[in-house]
Design brief:
Blueprint (H helix, E strand, L loop, with lengths): L5 H16 L3 H8 L6 E2 L7 E4 L10 E4 L3 E4 L3 H7 L7 H24 L5 E3 L6 E13 L12 E3 L1 E13 L5 E12 L6 E3 L1 H27 L4
Parallel strand pairs: 3-5, 3-6, 4-6
Antiparallel strand pairs: 1-2, 2-9, 6-8, 7-10, 8-9
Helix pairs in contact: 1-2, 4-5
Length: 227
C-alpha cells in the first residue's frame, strides 16, 4: 500500500532537502541508497534522479498526482516576523501551503497534458503512473499576509524551494523513480523588484514549470510511448 511509504517519503524528502540546501550531494546520494532498486539517471536535468532499471515505463499512458506535501524552511516564520510590522501567522502559513500545493498540481497538470500529452487522472489503474510530490524548505521572501494595508517589499528573489518527487506504479505500489531538485526564483537579471502575492505566484509558477517540463521531457524522450 502507498500509505505505508508516507513516513519514509517525508523523512527522505526532508533529509534530501537539507543535503541539497547544503550542497551535500554525497549525503543526498546516501539517502537515495535506501532505495536499493534504483540507479542514477544519466544526464538528468535536475540535481538528482534515480529510476528502477527493470520498470517498464512504456506501460504507463496516464498520470495521477497526489496532493503535494509542503513544508517551510526551518525557522522561516520566526525570521519573517523579526523585521515585519505585519506578522506572519499560523493561518497565513497554512494558506500559503494550500496555495502552493494547488499551484503545483495546476502547473504539472497543464504541462503533462499539453499538446496531446499524458492525461492526468484521479484514480489508479494499470496504465497510470503515480506521482507523490513534496515541496520542502519553502522560503517565501516577502509573503503577503493579507492584513490591512498593502503588502509590497523590494527583493531580488521571490524565494526558493526544493522539490522531492517519488514515482510509483499506481496499482502495485512499487517505487520506480525518485528525483530531487532545488531552485531559487530570481527576478530577471537579478534586479531588485517589488514582491507581493501576485509576483510571488508568478515566480512560483515559473519555478514549477521548470520542474514540470523536466518531468515531461524525461517521460517523452526516455520512457513513455503513446499510440
Amino acid at each position: 500500500m502507498l500509505t505505508t511509504h508516507t513516513t519514509r517519503s517525508r523523512i527522505c524528502a526532508m533529509t534530501l532537502g537539507a543535503c541539497l540546501l547544503a550542497a551535500s550531494t554525497a549525503e543526498a546520494e546516501e539517502v537515495i541508497g535506501l532505495f536499493d532498486n534504483l540507479v542514477p539517471v544519466e544526464g538528468a536535468s535536475v540535481h538528482m534522479a534515480y529510476i528502477d532499471p527493470n520498470a517498464d515505463f512504456s506501460a504507463f499512458k496516464r498520470v495521477m498526482i497526489l496532493d503535494p506535501y509542503v513544508s517551510f524552511r526551518a525557522n522561516w516564520q520566526r525570521d519573517q516576523n523579526r523585521n515585519r510590522t505585519q506578522r506572519v501567522s499560523a493561518r497565513d502559513m497554512e494558506r500559503i501551503r494550500v496555495d502552493v500545493a494547488a499551484l503545483f498540481r495546476d502547473v504539472f497538470t497543464e504541462v503533462l497534458q499539453a499538446d496531446n500529452g499524458f492525461e492526468v487522472v484521479n484514480d489508479p489503474d494499470f496504465d497510470v503512473l503515480l506521482l507523490r510530490p513534496a515541496i520542502i524548505d519553502l522560503d517565501v521572501t516577502a509573503p503577503d499576509t493579507r492584513n490591512a494595508g498593502r503588502s509590497t517589499t523590494f527583493t531580488s528573489s521571490a524565494g526558493a524551494a526544493t522539490v522531492y518527487l517519488e514515482v510509483f506504479d499506481s496499482v502495485s505500489g512499487d517505487l520506480i523513480g525518485v528525483a530531487a531538485d532545488r531552485r531559487v526564483a530570481r527576478s530577471a537579471g537579478n534586479n531588485i523588484s517589488w514582491s507581493n502575492r501576485v509576483t510571488n505566484t508568478q515566480e512560483a509558477r515559473r519555478m514549477f514549470t521548470v520542474w514540470a517540463n523536466a518531468l515531461r521531457n524525461f517521460l517523452d524522450s526516455h520512457y513513455l510511448t503513446k499510440d
